[in-house]
């Protein structure tokens, strides 16, 4: 089942979920692109390596091309102000299918959006830097960047139009990857993202281009937190995800990431800083996904009140939309959870504490590259305290990172204001 973005936006606006995966209805107004051609098979690997090669490219599917004017129109329809200094080139978009691993380390596949700029000046064997762009919360698999043709491509297209390659993973269980999405599982989001970079290097070569190994990491919301963790992994040489020292982290610019679940995000559910509908959405998604990784319950009724316990897991099967979720759940976290588990969320212990701690600490390291933390004081999905805590963690490790406050705009407003600033900053750093 696929729902149009326009319908989702209307619903989400009505229930104050604008900061989730919803976005302006770009699908109806985006320029026509070249019909996708058949997938180009990747170079075959020896049979013995097929299940061992993390990031091995399986296929490249052309998704279409935009010229410079069409990119400018697409970005403008998304409500992003980007001048001709940023939108400099056209682009070609592709879906990559590649090998990666599950949260348990078993072989699986994932998909992602790979974008190359078109019309670059001729300069011999010019190699491209790459932007790693990790997306925010999405519940329907068809909203992911390599499948959905609107919000999920807004920032990748903007960054590509500045003259960089872009790798935007769908994550596990979204796009055309198998299984369910392990929402807010930082470890598997990192492996899917780093493996997408590896697959992108192979795809670029197959498409007659080359990457120079420089990585500029960014992401929004869930993807902001992922970007910080990916930066840490690249700074280590991607050692814990299979050993790949080809990539060099050059800069980090996440937007509105939930870096501090235990100290900021979860307490904000209880003191009003997170609006009730967004809190309900994130909490139900987080608990059902984390239960598959850090078992929190044997029966949903141990955590969720009836009648919601009967349906909540099915709502996050990657085939339901935000509208489906909202209309089948109550109006707040307190109405959703049993009294006992509502209090457990206030004072986590056991498996719940383990799940939260596994996804905190993404800022507790020392980047040796410039970092900017974009956010907004008006955000009622991921309060600005997350960015301030991240900045404090970085400072404790010896790096001062500015918190870029976009003012009294909401979660998605922070995204729209931040991405042209980030694009301009990445260009300036790369000169």
Description of the molecule:
The chain is α/β, with parallel strands linked by helices and 431 residues long. The protein has one domain (5-260, 359-429): Alpha/Beta hydrolase fold, catalytic domain (Rossmann fold), CATH 3.40.50. The protein is 35% helix and 17% strand. It contains 14 helices and 10 strands.
N-end to C-end Cα span: 45 Å
Sheet/helix structural class: alpha/beta
Percentage beta strand: 15-25%
Question: What is the count of β-strands?
Answer: 10
Class, according to the CATH hierarchy?
Answer: Alpha Beta
The H-and-E topology, N to C, reads as: HEEHEEEHEHEHEHHHHHHHEHEH
Key attributes of the depicted protein:
431 residues, alpha/beta, Rossmann fold, two-stranded parallel ribbon, 10 strands
Quick gist of this model?
This protein is an alpha/beta fold and 431 residues long. The chain has helices at 5-14, 68-77, 154-161, 186-206, 222-235, 261-271, 276-290, 312-315, 322-328, 333-336, 339-346, 350-359, 385-396, 411-429; strands spanning 40-41, 57-66, 90-101, 107-118, 128-134, 165-169, 211-220, 248-255, 373-375, 403-405.
